[in-house]
Amino acid sequence: MSTDHPGDASQSVELDLRSPQRQLIEWQIEHADLDALIDQAAAAPGHMDELRLRRMKKRRLALRDQMASLQAQLAPKEPA
Question: What is the spatial distance between Cα 62 and Cα 64, in angstroms, rounded to a whole number?
Answer without folding.
Answer: 5
